[in-house]
Design a protein that fits this description.
The structure holds 2 protein chains of 2 kinds. Helices cover about 80% and strands about 0% of the residues of chain A. The model of chain A has no long low-confidence stretch (mean pLDDT about 90). In chain A, helix 7 runs antiparallel to helix 8. Chain A has a single domain, classed as MetI-like fold (Orthogonal Bundle), CATH 1.10.3720.10. Chain A is mainly alpha-helical. Chain B is of the alpha/beta class. In chain B, the strands form 3 sheets. In chain B, strands 1, 5, 6, 7, 8 and 14 form a 6-stranded mixed sheet that branches. In chain B, strand 2 and strand 3 form a beta hairpin. The chains are: A mainly alpha, B alpha/beta. Chains A and B meet through helix 1, helix 2, helix 3 and helix 7 of A and helix 1 and helix 4 of B.
């Protein structure tokens, strides 16, 4: 057994991080938009957001991936494996992140906004200086949590033809007949990646806590 | 309000499902040749046809044979590896031009798919733990727990055979055959039912762990590659058939079979009428 196999595991871990990272970034952006729509007083905006959230939160990610990969080509939209994987992960995490963010925005104390009205801050100033920073700080632990969940859920994307960390471990375990070794390596790599994510989250929490008086 | 949206969503989905009729048809062989790439869907957990070898490289009869087929067609092969239960849906969705696998040519599949000419024998036999004296012949699995791959023709044959025994065979379905072999080695099941070329390869690689139970119990059957029955795909499968027949005639096929199975098979030159 050669060291090349461990290179392959590292390469697959990198691919897992890359695809999850892209999906989390897209999902956060999309989640922010969905959250804004959901919080809107206009039914025209909040109703589609509700449908979006209930669909992508209610259908298992595995089923979403299969639908994207196998259903979209039927209506003439070709989705390569990697695109289907990123799309599935992004849409799913966007629904969860929108709800996390909504919780944050709803937890901003009303008194602060009333005070802001009194001193004459515009709605935009209230958003950028009061609501968004507080909501972000309140949501941060949940967002890190969601990022870790997506990273681990990315093991499902092999079903649309992407060889990520778990699938690579399965393949190598099968060809070398050493399942214990390769699943342990995969588990260790996931652990290291999640620690890094959690560490980054803790750092961000510390930085946002001390910022401004 | 919510109800109306639900209705719209259902309407949208049913429209989406109905639309494939509108998709335009372009000859697949011409498309493949102009792109210079033949996209082949497969599962990399079906040694010796298709697997990841000890160096981490994609290997097996499929890789060698499709290299030759690619040369005949003048195109490169692009592999798409999925779990087996995702391979045929992917083919129908048009994610790849054809499927390697290979798959046993069965009555049910012939209804829905166009097979290439056979590339190997697929008759089903049993793999047991080396030194397990309780299983000497296929009938000895009566009343015992036997594993096979989910959604495979081998599983179907095992179930049919199980019904003919005095005590019914209990079956356990696995996502991939490698998991079934692992459970056999661990003693959770007493045997694995799979096609002879596959289990012969496994037993030959690990003679201390596994042994083949002879004779094969299944109906004689063959492995072929798979395409769709869409009219635009027929030219491609015709061309692949011609390439395979040419490789059979010039002896390359026999050499590849010898390399991967340690033996050669006498396979028909046309798709046989399936018995299973």
């Amino acid at each position: 057994m050669s060291w090349r196999l461990f290179d392959l595991m590292l390469w697959a871990a990198g691919y897992t991080v890359l695809l999850s990272g892209i999906s989390i970034a897209i999902g956060l952006t999309l989640g922010l938009l969905v959250c804004a729509a959901k919080l809107s007083t206009s039914r025209l905006l909040s109703a589609p957001a509700t449908v979006f959230i209930s669909f992508f939160r209610g259908v298992p990610l595995l089923v979403q991936l299969l639908l994207i990969y196998n259903l979209l080509p039927q209506i003439g939209i070709m989705v390569p494996s990697v695109v289907a994987a990123i799309l599935g992960l992004s849409l799913c995490t966007a629904a969860y992140q929108a709800e996390n963010l909504r919780g944050g925005f709803n937890s901003v104390p009303k008194g602060l906004l009333e005070a802001a009205d009194m001193v004459g801050l515009s709605p935009w100033q209230q958003l950028t200086r009061i609501r968004a920073p507080i909501a972000f700080r309140l949501t941060l632990p949940a967002l890190v949590n969601e990022a870790i969940l997506i990273l681990k859920a990315s093991s499902l994307i092999s079903v649309v033809g992407v060889i990520e960390l778990t699938r690579m471990a399965q393949n190598l375990a099968a060809s070398t007949y050493k399942p214990l070794l390769f699943y342990s390596v995969a588990g260790g790599l996931y652990l290291v990646i999640c620690w890094t994510l959690a560490g980054g989250g803790a750092l961000a929490e510390r930085l946002t806590r001390t910022h401004r008086a | 309000m919510n109800k109306r949206f639900l209705m719209k969503a259902i309407l949208g989905l049913s429209l989406a499902l109905g639309l494939p009729l509108a998709a335009h048809a372009e000859d697949t062989l011409a498309k493949v040749k102009s792109a210079g790439v033949l996209k082949v869907g497969t599962e990399t957990a079906f040694a010796p046809f298709d697997f990841i070898d000890e160096t981490g490289a994609h290997a097996g009869l499929n890789v060698d044979l499709f290299d030759e087929i690619g040369k005949e067609l003048g195109v490169k092969i692009q592999w798409v590896a999925l779990p087996w239960d995702g391979v045929l849906p992917g083919l129908e969705a048009g994610q790849f031009d054809m499927v390697a696998g290979p798959a046993t040519i069965t009555k049910a599949r012939v209804e829905r798919y166009r097979f290439t000419v056979p590339i190997a024998e697929a008759t089903v036999a049993l793999l047991k733990r080396a030194g397990d004296d309780t299983i000497q012949k296929p009938e000895d699995i009566a009343g015992k727990l036997v594993g096979a791959g989910k959604a495979t023709a081998q599983l179907k044959q095992l179930q049919d055979y199980g019904k003919t025994l005095p005590k019914p065979v209990e079956t356990r379905e696995y996502v991939g055959y490698n998991e079934a072999y692992a459970d056999l080695a661990a003693g959770r099941i007493v045997a694995v039912a799979n096609s002879l070329p596959n289990i012969a390869f496994v037993a030959q690689k690990q003679p201390d762990t596994f042994a083949v139970v002879k004779p094969a119990f299944g109906q004689p059957s063959y492995f072929g590659y798979i395409g769709t029955k869409k009219p635009e795909d027929q030219s491609l499968i015709d061309a692949v058939d011609a390439a395979i027949l040419k490789l059979k005639k010039n002896g390359s096929m026999a050499k590849l079979q010898e390399k991967w199975f340690g033996t050669t098979f006498d396979t028909p030159d046309t798709v046989p009428t399936p018995k299973v």
